[in-house]
Specification:
392 residues; alpha/beta; Rossmann fold; 11 helices; 21% strand; disordered C terminus; binds S-adenosylmethionine
Length: 392
């Protein structure tokens, strides 16, 4: 099977499609097409295993099992019935059908979901005389269908739980970033394992943890389960080889220092436990500190800051007083560093009094955010700040 190229789609948080495509190329998957919300790729089955195991940025890997034009719900039913579901999983597995659509002319997505579920179960009854049960909470197998104005595409989800669930987070802090968003921010910031990293508002430690995993080449999916393990065509031997191939490439230590801190002792404790659980506690120099008390730990490096912002945490007036101090702190102590601030507060450049050299639009769930880049060079940043446009 492994010489055959199959079609897959890896969704990701909006705004990370470009860095996901780069990551797929780095993972040896060259045949990619970037679209809104993810990257399609053509690759052998083994690449599906590899991307599930190694991608820091993809949210899932969906295997495209069919695509067909449609006009009505009956067409969707027939197209779903036509597919060889009993060749891919058994009636002993529980299933869930999820439908999403863009510009679909049919009126009810719930009804389409029901028709696809009927088609799959009818097919099983016809071929195996037994149908799989539905489990909408913890299904073994997730079937996805996507409808545009004229075409329905069917997918089998090979990941199961979304890939940002690495299995490391034991307890959560308030407003944690999703792991794949944190990894995407590191890529967008151009951070590489050879750069010193400082996250001085680390909360539960999502950003330094992703950095440490990348730097040590520890696969983010190393210790979790995947939906493909339930598929009939799963190849446990090949999967075992790939996991082992990844494991032997792990490095014993990070090439450059990773620093993390937070003013909140409870957050620091949670971060500490999470780093220990992921086996990277020795790689991250973690301490409790107010950000403004920190000195630059190296002559150069990358600062990645995810401050609290009004919508989710703190009151806007507190932040208004804090941001100018943050700007002074950067200018006075981080000469030579590249600083990145990820925030939903589009007034940030104005409030900190620094001109960003880049502003990258991103979404944190439904919240529109920016990743601002500030190149801290003495003197040069004190110029007048250009008025931010309405979109920040
Ligand atoms: C949005 S959260 C960061 C979440 C983090 N990226 C994660 O994924 O868990 C902001 C963090 O900033 C911390 N914080 C707020 N003011 C601070 C200050 N003056 N110095 C250091 N940390 C501060 C808060 O305790 C909180 O953990």
């Amino acid at each position: 099977m492994d010489s055959t190229k199959l079609r897959f789609f890896a969704p990701c948080p909006s705004g990370l499609e470009g860095v996901l495509e780069q990551e797929l190329h780095d993972l040896g998957v060259p045949m990619t097409t970037k679209t809104d919300g993810g990257v399609a790729f053509l690759a052998p089955w083994s690449s599906m295993y590899w991307v599930n195991l190694k991608s820091h940025i993809a949210s899932r890997v969906l295997w495209e099992v069919g695509q067909t034009p449609y006009l009505s719900e009956d067409d969707v039913y027939r197209a779903a019935y036509h597919l060889s579901w009993p060749d891919w999983f058994t009636s002993a597995q529980t299933i869930k059908v999820k439908v999403s659509a863009r510009r679909c002319p049919l009126t009810s997505l719930d009804f389409i979901t029901l028709r696809i579920k009927d088609a799959v179960c009818d097919k099983f009854m016809a071929v195996r005389h037994k149908r799989p049960n539905i489990d909408t909470h913890h299904p073994n197998i997730r079937l996805d269908a996507f409808l545009d104005e004229s075409t329905v595409t069917f997918y089998l989800d090979t990941s199961g739980d979304p890939l940002f669930k690495r299995g490391h987070r034991i307890v959560s802090v308030e407003a944690p970033l999703r792991e794949n968003l944190a990894a995407g921010l590191l890529r967008l910031a151009g951070w590489t394992p050879n750069d010193v990293l400082l996250d001085p508002m680390c909360g539960g430690g999502t950003i330094p943890l992703e950095a440490a995993l990348m730097a040590r080449r520890i696969a983010p999916g190393q210790s979790r389960a995947f939906a493909f393990e339930h598929l009939i065509i799963h190849d446990p031997k090949l999967w075992g080889h790939l996991r082992e191939a990844s494991r032997v490439k792990q490095l014993a230590e990070v090439p450059a220092a990773i620093y993390a801190s937070d003013q909140d002792p409870a957050a620091v404790k949670i971060a500490q436990r999470t780093f220990q659980g992921a086996g990277v506690a020795i790689d991250i120099r973690l301490k409790q500190s107010d950000i403004l008390a920190l000195e630059a730990p190296a002559e150069q490096g990358v600062l990645l800051i995810n401050p609290p912002y009004g919508v989710r945490l703190n009151r806007p007036e507190e932040l208004d007083a804090f941001y100018p101090k943050l700007g002074d702190w950067l200018k006075q102590r981080f000469n030579g560093w590249r600083a990145y601030i990820f925030t939903g507060d589009l007034r940030t450049p104005k409030l900190i009094g620094l001109a960003p050299s880049k502003r990258i639009p991103l979404f944190n769930g439904p919240l529109e955010c920016r990743l601002y880049e500030f190149l801290i060079v003495s003197g040069s940043m004190r110029k007048t700040i250009p008025k931010p446009d309405k979109r920040g």
